[in-house]
């Protein structure tokens, strides 16, 4: 049983504004993800969804001002970025970063070795990589390309999910993995996520702007994220309601609260 | 009027990038450090090479491993092979070497000969006190193919001229590896004359030495020639590495591609890259691109990078340049570390990747692995030093 526990998380980002210098993005987020659960976080642009994802992963741009994040009781916020990954957290990024001259094969092997604490056995590893790539409809020659360099938008996202399957974390945070994907690519990516979560003891935090991906990855819980807070929570039916009504009423309520 | 001016132009261009050379030492005044071509160089550390330090030392021993078909022989001053590349000393040190070199060699690859294994010439320095000067002329016959590796190791104060004559249709790779001890001073001049439809690749690798300054120049004897200049350097604390390149497009439909990549770490590590390209009026339909990238690993380093392009004709296929000096990209490191890879390992991977495309383009299998290992060993020094600092802070 794995539990990722986020309590009253406040996060600021550094800005160029000289007077304040910092802008608060997350204003008290509380969320518990248990293994076996898939949580969807939905919200309009600028609501802080990605900030939540990057704060959990430990991106240096974000400053945690208060609150806590624990994984099975361990304090995540005091861990370095790589310690968090080795503790069992994984972030599929919206904009994966190019690393020129480093092949996908080298990158995957180095990451797997770091996560497991020992190098994977060569024979099974090559097979695992080829299977993971094949399931995501990526050619074996993909392994020889430089990480994310010259990848199409779809290839980048499929590569993220290939990593998810190969590194096999305990809790996966997927940041707008559906954005920019056509329907075929979306299905391939969703199948990968579903393979991951069908395993024992896996939690998923799925961040998305659109309900489309939720047709392929059915969430157990839906959280509506507005202005750095969770504004509403429910089951999958909440996603359908958002599909029909949009975020308008939440945005207006948040604006009114800010004025009040 | 215009026609007369054009005709004169064809013969001679007063390029500000590359002053007219001379064999006469006295035509080159002792540099003061204010001259454009000397302003980056720490003259005080040159041990008098730029003034009048005797060059008659014998502190550099040469050994060579030449495959069958390649002739390596000593030549005397005044031999017609010297200067056969069109080399004219462009500064005082090159002119001094011309007159005072203690050792002069000719390496000759006959026409139509394809040499499978590289010719390896190792110069081992044993003495920094007495400056040494050498002059080598590599002549590759028509349609020949050869790779020549010049390896510099040990401790020395060396000034050398290396000429390369690339025959029509020949394919020549010259790899120069400065793997000196930390107290070596090396000022080198390399000049290539590239024949019609010939290909010349110059690879300049600089890891060791206190001061290393290389002038590498190329011109074309006929149309269709291609020049590729690749450079890889890794400067540690206190080291000064300077690469001054000049590609003189003297013939139509010629190509040049320059890519130098370097890493710097430690206090007062200093690298200089000057990339000059001149496209003469006659050089219609040429293509050129030059690029310098520097990765600055620590505080206290300085990377100077100056690309220059002089264009005398509008009829070119392409001409461009790029220069960038940066630190490790935080987003790249974050991405790698978010996959469990430690900070040190992430830096190692990024640096490995930074040099990898260059190493692949060198395409000399005999040296590739060695280069990768040396790059990693250099980085390891820095990581070890960083660890020590952290421990001290704790």
Describe the protein's architecture and organization.
The complex is a heterodimer of chains A (260) and B (394). Chain A has a single domain (3-96, 169-259), classed as Rossmann fold. Chain A is built from 8 helices and 12 strands. Chain A has helices at residues 49-57, 81-87, 104-116, 122-135, 153-167, 183-198, 236-245, 248-259; strands at 3-14, 22-34, 38-42, 62-71, 74-75, 89-92, 99-103, 146-147, 171-175, 203-208, 221-226, 229-234. In chain A, the strands form 3 sheets. In chain A, strands 6-9-10-3-11-12 form a 6-stranded mixed β-sheet, with helices on both faces. In chain A, strands 2-1-4-5 form a 4-stranded antiparallel β-sheet. A two-stranded antiparallel sheet of chain A has the order 7-8. The mean pLDDT of chain A is 94. With 394 residues, chain B is α/β, with parallel strands linked by helices. Chain B folds into 2 domains: 2-327, no CATH class; 329-394, no CATH class. Chain B is globular, with a radius of gyration of 21 Å. The model of chain B is unreliable at 1-11 and 386-394 (pLDDT under 50). Chain A binds chain B through residues 57-60, 80-82, 84-86, 90-91, 93, 96-102, 106-107, 110-111, 114-115, 146, 163, 167, and chain B through 329-332, 334-343, 345-346, 349-350, 352-357.
Key phrases:
heterodimer; A: 260 residues; alpha/beta; 6-stranded mixed beta sheet; 8 helices; 37% helix; B: alpha/beta; 2 domains; 16-stranded mixed beta sheet; 16 strands; 19% helix; 42% strand; disordered N terminus; disordered C terminus
Short recap of the structure:
The complex is a heterodimer of chains A (260) and B (394). Chain A is α/β, with parallel strands linked by helices.
What general form of chain B does the structure show? globular
| Cα separation of the termini of chain A | 42 Å
Q: Structural class, judged by helices and strands of chain B? A: alpha/beta
**Largest interface, counted by CB within 8 Å of the partner chain's CB:** A-B, 29 and 24 residues
